[in-house]
Amino acid sequence: MVGRRVAQDLSEHGLAPIVQAASAEQLVAASAASVDLVVLAGPASSSQRASDIRLLRERLPGVETVVVSSAPGGRGVRKALRMGAAGFVFESDLATTLAITVRAVAAGQVAIPRQLVHHADKLALSPREKQILGMVVLGFQNQEIAAKLHLAETTVKGHLSSTFKKLDVGSRKEASALVLDHREGLGPGILSMPGTEGPPGGAPLRP
User: Fold this and answer.
1) Considering the domain boundaries, does residue 45 fall inside one?
2) In this structure, are residues 117 and 97 in contact, taking their beta carbons and an 8 Å threshold?
3) Among 120, 138, 154, residue at a domain's last position
């Protein structure tokens, strides 16, 4: 249904799609002609959407991607941008923003709703968030992290919640994969692991 709305809206603005497909894989298989821009629409998790963008980038070099999302609060936009998407449109705003976004992206611009601009900012984790994330990557559980850093377990949970929100992930597994992925990951350089017993001198960091 969303796909039909997208196609109709684009056609009404003189941007009729040359290829339509039910998935990124089908689109790649059907794209014998040169494709410059793809609109990804319909229900999908942020992880699946990121995989779709990666596939398109690998199999259709130079293609630009616009994501249409029904997720509340713009969940998934940071991950989509990190994977290479250049446009982001809320499903509820298709009629007023899709054509404008597509034209902007086709012209080499990045186009996202104003309220989501902060998602495009450079990721900024606090020193404590980096330290706790590093310990999560190493396999420590919340109770262990709390004991080693002399924190309350609720404090650790609070830092992790903030970190997951910034990373746009929903679990420890996703967060670890994001850091360690050798192709698309953030890299261990974002972590802070001066030692699991706290900073030099033995004095624990304050939350």
Assistant:
1) yes
2) no
3) 120
* Residue 154 neighbours by CB distance under 10 Å: 10
CA distance 78 to 103: 21
Residues 110, 90: one domain?
yes
Measured CA to CA, the distance from residue 75 to residue 73 in angstroms comes to 6
**How far is the C-alpha of 138 from the C-alpha of 141, rounded, in Å?**
9
Identify whether the C-beta of residue 62 lies closer than 8 Å to the C-beta of residue 86: no
Range of the domain at 136: 127-190
Q: How confident is the model over 103-137, as pLDDT tens digits?
A: 999 999 989 888 877 666 656 788 888 889 988 98
Q: Are both 102 and 186 inside the same structural domain? A: no
Residues 21 and 75 in one domain: yes
Q: Which residues pair with 64 in a beta bridge?
A: 37
94: Cα separation from own chain's centroid: 21
Sorted by sequence, the CB contacts under 8 Å of residue 159 that are 6+ apart come out as 126, 128, 129, 132, 207
Strand, helix or coil at 156? helix
